[in-house]
Amino acid sequence: MKKQPVIFNSLSQLHKAMGQPAPSHPLISIMNYGEARFDPKDFEQGIILKFYKISFKTSFSGRLKYGQGYYDFEEGGMSFIAPGQLIRMQDEEANYDGMTLHIHPDFLRTYPLSSGIRHYGYFSYSAAEALYLSEKEKATILSIYRFIQEELSERTDKFSQDVIISQIEVLLNYANRFYDRQFLTRKAVNNDLLTRLEQLLEDYFNDDKSLFTGLPSVNALAESLQVTPRYLSDLLRNLVGLSAQQFIHEKVIEKSKEYLAKDELTIAEIAYHLGFEHPQSFNKLFKSKTSFSPSDYKKSLLN
To answer: Domain map of the chain by residue range?
Structure first.
């Protein structure tokens, strides 16, 4: 019988499996990587956590994967996993030091962060899209982890949860800032990905794939580029100021203008060639992007 992923519903279950003492709080804990004791063979099919996992790795040995390349980045980094995601052991670097923060959704209940945490897109990133930290950034993150750790080890009072949640928000906002820096400083890799995305879309339309499979989707393009859809959108926002869906629409409009200028196809035929099921949908998108209907735009080319 094929083994299934191991599911951890509580922090206590995870601590026990990792050979660690029970957490001081049932809904939030910090675990030191160096102290974890477990056999990776017990989790060959991966694990699924029913709580958030924010990993802070203070140092790595070897190279780290970023996009399609590998980089020496020994200063450390972070990864973010939302409840219910499958974690495979090969996604976890074997040789590192650091800590992981586990937060059960119930700990956030009644706080705005309970719903607000969904807006931090990096919880949808893959292990290959980790956040790599400079020495200065690492010190900032480490201070927050230590603050939370100290707060958990102290005697709790009616303010403890408020204080810890405020620190979690600070941590997440710093991660936003540092990811923004990462998008900017990894220009060579990011521009290469943008070039490959543009080529994918060009080939998609030139090979008439849209006739059979419809409009290109964010998920399909992200899969071809070996990145997550959310990472692709966030990357494009930083590079060109558009989400992945908006970027696709811009390319659709560019291609439609080419067809209209050639005057070889009817507007309905252009719509089908681009992957639209109905010409009306094409007309609506074109007008929303150009303020012209396709027919009016075509007429303007003749003037």
So the answer is: 6-185, 188-302
What does each of the 303 residues of the chain score in pLDDT, given as a tens digit?
Answer: 567 888 999 999 999 988 889 999 999 999 987 777 777 677 777 888 999 999 998 765 544 443 444 444 455 688 898 998 887 755 444 456 788 999 999 999 999 999 999 899 898 887 667 888 888 998 999 999 999 999 998 767 889 999 999 999 999 999 999 998 888 887 777 888 899 999 999 888 888 777 678 888 999 999 998 889 999 999 999 888 999 999 999 999 999 999 898 888 899 999 998 899 899 999 999 999 999 999 998 888 776
Distance CA 192, CA 204 (A): 18
Identical fold, 6-185 and 188-302: no
- Fold for the domain defined by 188-302: Arc Repressor Mutant, subunit A (1.10.10)
Distance in angstroms (rounded) separating the CA atoms of residues 238 and 299 = 36
CATH topology of domain 6-185: Jelly Rolls (2.60.120)
Nearest alpha-carbon partner for 78 in 146, 181, 178? 178
